[in-house]
């Protein structure tokens, strides 16, 4: 596995509709292959590996949770709003990076004021060390600028690492690995990178309408609520393999695709977990409703502490996800869908 690529993907900032920096990394990697580029108007894009048989779409989203500047106060503070569902406790005393429209970056401290009765943050702000709004404006910072965690990638052990934005840089990494390993394969595959998933699965709809796939595999991540729970209730344990999702709030996946993934995993002895999302959903929610309907399944990569300043992942889960999807794609034909 390519630790350097994962580090590069995680360290760049990219909230919804501000995804140019991560897009540049993906395109630099993809330029090594002779795939056709397809783009929508929201910032999403896909690479087409032309072949025969059903049109297969693999999708991962390129945005991360973060914040956006809403106001600049006379005292030089940045009032920000969350972009995506950020964990409440991850809004206190965190190092963040403010990125201007010209891609100039400044470090500050994120903090919040808690509403004790409702356990929500009434005011979220970034302190850049400035004393006036004039100082802030002179830096080139303005309303609408992107704010993301300054939480650089770190290797914790041989297989485990921590970084921001594992949701969904893990999915991006898996798609890039599949592009590399499946060169010369005769399947008709679209490697799709969607925009703005964290604010309502927006880019997946536009990209799917362009591609009009016959089937879709959505690659995303999920974490357990309680990391001390290693029982049957926790099917999102890192190091235990990818999760094959049987349900979420936005979609009941296609049974044939679920069965196909599980059959492949058992045949090739690939570790996997069976999971359901009681809350939330993925790009699969909009993908499966696109055009005349698209048979869709979601493959989840387990993390710890999602939607926060740092998450923890395991390279063995990434490798098992790549292996599972590559073998599953080899088995796809018109009869199987």
TrEMBL record:
Alphabetically, the GO molecular function entries are:
aminopeptidase activity; metal ion binding
Per the record's keyword annotation, is Hydrolase included, yes or no?
Answer: yes
Locate the residues binding Zn(2+) 2: 167, 198, 307
Which positions are catalytic residues? Answer: 197
**Which controlled-vocabulary keywords does the entry list?**
Aminopeptidase, Hydrolase, Metal-binding, Protease
The protein's required cofactor(s) are namely: a divalent metal cation
Binding of Zn(2+) 1, residues: 61, 167, 220
CC cofactor note: Binds 2 divalent metal cations per subunit.
Which example biological process does GO assign this protein? Answer: proteolysis
Q: Name one Pfam family in it.
A: Peptidase_M42
Q: Which family does it belong to?
A: Belongs to the peptidase M42 family.
Matching entries from PANTHER family are given as: AMINOPEPTIDASE, AMINOPEPTIDASE YPDE-RELATED
Protein's recorded name: Aminopeptidase
Task: Please spell out the taxonomic lineage of the organism that makes this protein.
Answer: Bacteria, Bacillati, Bacillota, Bacilli, Lactobacillales
């Amino acid at each position: 596995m390519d630790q350097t690529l994962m580090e590069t993907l995680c360290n760049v900032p990219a909230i919804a509709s501000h995804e140019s920096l991560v897009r540049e990394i993906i395109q630099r990697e993809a330029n090594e292959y002779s795939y056709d580029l397809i783009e929508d108007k929201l910032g999403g894009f896909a690479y087409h590996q032309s072949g025969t048989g059903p049109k297969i779409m693999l999708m991962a989203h390129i945005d991360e949770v973060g914040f956006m500047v809403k106001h600049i106060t006379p005292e030089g503070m940045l009032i920000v709003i969350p972009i995506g569902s950020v964990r409440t406790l991850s809004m206190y005393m965190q190092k963040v990076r403010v990125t201007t429209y010209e891609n100039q970056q400044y470090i500050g401290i994120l903090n919040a004021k808690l509403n004790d009765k409702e356990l929500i943050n009434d005011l979220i702000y970034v302190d850049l060390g400035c004393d006036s709004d004039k100082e802030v404006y002179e830096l080139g910072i303005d309303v609408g600028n992107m704010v993301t965690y300054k939480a650089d990638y770190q290797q914790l052990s041989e297989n485990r690492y921590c970084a921001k934005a594992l949701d969904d840089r893990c999915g991006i990494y898996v798609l890039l690995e599949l592009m590399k390993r499946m060169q010369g394969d005769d399947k008709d595959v679209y490697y799709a990178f969607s925009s703005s998933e964290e604010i309502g699965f927006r880019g997946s709809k536009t990209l799917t309408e362009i591609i009009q796939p016959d089937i879709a595999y959505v690659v995303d991540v999920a974490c357990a609520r309680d990391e001390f729970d290693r029982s049957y209730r926790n099917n999102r344990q890192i190091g235990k393999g990818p999760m094959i999702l049987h349900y979420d709030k936005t979609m009941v996946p296609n049974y044939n695709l679920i069965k196909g993934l599980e059959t492949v995993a058992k045949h090739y002895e690939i570790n996997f977990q069976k999971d359901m999302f009681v809350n939330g959903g993925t790009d699969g929610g909009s993908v499966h409703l696109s055009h005349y309907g698209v048979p869709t399944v979601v493959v989840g990569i387990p993390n710890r502490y999602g939607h926060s300043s740092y998450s923890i992942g395991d390279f063995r889960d990434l490798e098992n996800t790549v292996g599972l999807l590559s073998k599953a794609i080899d088995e796809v034909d018109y009869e199987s869908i």
